[in-house]
Amino acid sequence: MSSQIVGKFSQNSQDISQDFQLPSAYESAMEALSTLITQKKRNGIPAISGQNQKLDRMLRYIKILGLEEKIAGLKIIHVAGTKGKGSTCAFCEAILRECGFKTGLFTSPHLIDVRERYRLDGMDICQEKFLQYFWDCWNQLKANVSEDLPMPPLFQFLTVLAFKIFVSEKVDVAIIEVGLGGKLDSTNVIKEPVVCGITSLGMDHMETLGNTLGQIASHKAGILKPQVPAFTVLQLSEAMEVLQERAKELMVSLQVVAPLNLEKLNGARLSLSGDHQLSNAALAVSLCKSWLRSTGNWKRLFEDAYEKDGLPEEFLRGLSAARLSGRGQIVVDPLINTSGGHKRLSGDLTFYLDGAHSPESMDACARWFSASVVERKDMSLSSVSSKVNTMERAWTNGYIKPCNNKDSDEIPKRILLFNCMDARDPQILLPKLVNTCASSGIYFSKAIFVPSISAYTKVTSATSAIPSYIPGKDLSWQFNLQRIWEKIIHGKDVLDQNLKLNASVGVPPREFLYKEASRCGPEDGYFACSAVFPSLPLTINWLRDCVRENPSLRVQVLVTGSLHLVGDVLKLLRR
Fold first, then answer.
1. Which spans in 119-255 are helix H?
2. 165 and 64 in contact (C-beta within 8 Å)?
3. By C-alpha distance, which of 84, 125, 124 is closest to 328?
C-alpha cells in the first residue's frame, strides 16, 4: 500500500505542486510524509542500523538539493538538551526578531500541524510555501533514490526541508533545535554554527542515549564544534564533567549561565510560564549576545551600553513575546459561554497544558500548575478554608484535602487528564506529579486516563478527520495507569487479581465529577478518584456538558504526560 501511495505521489506531485489552494494537496503531502515513517513505535529499532551511515546519508541528501555550501551561510544557533531546548530556541528567535533580523526557527515535535516546526519571522510557514518547498525536496530526492540511498526517514526529511526553507527564504539567522541526542542527530550535519547551547540534562530517551547521565551528556556534547562558543545552564556534576571535558578537547569556551533574576528583567514578564523558564531565558540571552557579537552586530545595535547590567529593550520584548504551544499553556475553553448579562449561563472550563514526560519536566510542570492556579485566584480545594475544623482526611495515605466551602456558590474541581507512551515509566511520573502538587497544597478531585488520538505511524494536519470513538480500542494501558493512580491515592495496592476496573466503553455519568474521593471504595469495586474514558473527543464533550449543566462549576484540567495528548487536546479545542 505504501509503495502504491509513493508511486502515486511520484506521478502526480508536479500537478499537486501547481495548485496550492486545494486542501487535498496539503493532505496528500501529509500522506507522503507518513510513508517515510520507518518506526512503528517510539522505542522501535531504527531502520538505519549504522548511525554514522545516517549522517553520511544526510550529507548526500543535502548535496542532492544543492544545499551543502549554502547551509554555512545560515548563521546557525544550534541547541541540544533534555529539557527546555524548545523554549530556549523560541526565546532566541523572538529576541533576534525584535532586534530586526529575519529569523528561521526549526523545532520538534509539532503538536497540531507539521508546519509548526518551521517558523519564518515568528510565524508558522504558510501552506503555499510549505507545499512549494516540500514537493521540490520530495521530487529531487525521489529522482535520486538508489539501492544504497533510499528516501530519508521522516525526521531526516523534515530536517533537510528546514535547511531548504531557510536557505531559500534567505533568513539572517536559523535557530535549530536538535531532535534527539546531538552527536548522531540529523541536525548535526551543521559544521560551523555561530554558537551552540545545551539546556538542562536529565534521564530521557535512555533506550537510545544510554542509562547514565554521563552517557546522555556525551551525546548532547556531540553538537559542540572546534572553537565555536558554547553555553550551558547549571547541571548535575556527572553531566557537567562530561560537557567540560568535551569542550576542553575541542578548545571550546563553555560558559555556564545562571538563571535570570527579576532585576535583570526590569519589570518584564516571561511569556513562557514556570520558574524553570528563567534558566532557559538566561541561556537564550547568552546565545543571542554571543551570536550578535560573532556576527558583528552587537556594537552596531547597542554599542557598550549593556555590557554589564541590564538587558536591551529588544531582548526584554523578545522574552515577553516568545511562544511555544503545549508548554505551560493555559487555554480557556472557547465554546463555554460563562455569562449572560448578570447571570452565569455555564461554569468555567480551563485547560492547563504541559507536555511533560520525564521526571524532571513533570516536577517543573507540577510546580507551574500549582503556582498558576493560585495566581489566577481560582477557588481551589486547597484554599477554600485554612481552618483545621473544616478539613477532613480524604486519602488514606495521609494527604489532607480541604472540604468544599459551604458558604461559596462556586464548586471548584481540579482534574488530571493523563496519558503517556509505554516507553515512559508512569510509576515515576505520577507520584512525582502528585507529591510536588501536594507540597504546594494542590490536589486533584479526579484523574481521567484516555488514549491519545495521534498515531505514531501517521502524520496528520490541523484539518485531518478526528473520530469521536473507535470501537474495540485497546485501553489496557489506560487501565494500568488507573491502577497506579489508585495505589498512589490509597497508599497501598488496593487491587487484587480477582478485581477488575470498570471497563465500560462509555463515559461515566456526570454525577461522577461531584462524588468525593473520601467515598472511594476500591475494595468494593467502586472508584470515585479516577476513570478511564474510551476517547479524547468524548472526554472533552463530557467536561463541557458538566460545566454547561452547572453554572457554579469551575473546572481546571491539567493535561500532561505526553505532547501527543497535549496536541490532540489543542486540536480539539481549536475546532
1. 127-143, 154-168, 206-209, 213-220, 237-249
2. no
3. 84
158: Cα separation from own chain's centroid? 17
Q: What is the DSSP letter of 34?
A: H
Burial group, residue 439, by CB count within 10 angstroms (0-12, 13-18, 19+): exposed
Residue 67 near residue 167 (C-beta atoms within 8 A) = yes
Tracing cell 474521593 back to the chain, one arrives at: 517
pTM: 0.85
Q: Per residue of the chain (575 residues), what is the pLDDT tens digit?
A: 233 333 344 444 444 344 444 468 899 999 999 999 986 554 544 443 456 688 999 999 999 999 999 998 899 999 999 999 999 999 999 999 999 999 999 999 999 999 999 999 999 999 999 999 999 999 999 999 999 999 999 999 999 999 999 999 999 999 999 999 999 999 999 999 999 999 999 887 777 788 899 999 999 999 999 999 999 999 999 999 999 999 999 999 999 999 999 888 988 999 998 889 999 999 999 999 999 999 999 998 987 665 566 799 999 999 999 999 999 999 999 887 555 555 567 789 999 999 999 999 999 999 999 999 987 654 333 333 332 332 232 232 333 344 344 445 678 899 999 999 988 899 999 999 999 999 999 999 999 999 998 877 789 888 888 877 777 788 999 999 999 999 998 876 655 444 444 445 578 898 898 877 665 655 555 577 899 999 999 999 999 999 999 888 999 999 999 999 999 999 999 88
Q: Could you tell me the sign of the dihedral formed by the alpha carbons of 253, 254, 255, 260, in that order?
A: positive
Residue with cell 473520530: 467
For residue 412, the cross-strand partners are: 554
Cα separation of 195 and 318, whole Å? 19
Three-class secondary structure of residue 451 per DSSP: coil
Nearest to 377 by CA among 397, 342, 350: 350
Block residue for cell numbers 489566577 = 376
Are 29 and 125 spatial neighbours (Cβ–Cβ below 8 Å)? no
Place of cell 512525582: 432
Of how many residues is the chain composed? 575
265/270 Cα distance (integer angstroms): 8
CA separation for the pair 416, 379 (Å, rounded): 17
Residue ranges in 170-253 assigned as alpha helix (H): 206-209, 213-220, 237-249
Q: Which residues pair with 103 in a beta bridge?
A: 173
From CA 25, how far away is CA 22, in angstroms rounded?
A: 5
Inter-residue contact 237 to 265 (CB < 8 Å): no
